[in-house]
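Journal club prep — side note

Before the paper discussion, L.F. wants everyone to see what a predicted structure for a comparable chain looks like in token form. Sequence:
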Amino acid sequence: MSQELAGTLSPGQVTTVQTATSTLDNNTTFPYTISFNNAPLNIAQCASPVSAVPFVSATISTTAGTVQTTGYGQQFTF
């Protein structure tokens, strides 16, 4: 599988890019794993450094309510 993402950044702007989603149901085998590794990043035509923070969010919804949590990785500059 391959995927290409593109976007436009302005100075001071924050952009979120979605890389993978999954819907879990009664037929899902647990534990369920999503892996996203070794993704190359290419930032072109920027006059100053660009930084990024990897993160993952999980949202669980039932008829009783919705819960969401987000985990953040370390910021890196390129």
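L.F.'s comment for the group: The chain has no helices and four strands. Keep this in mind when we get to the figures.
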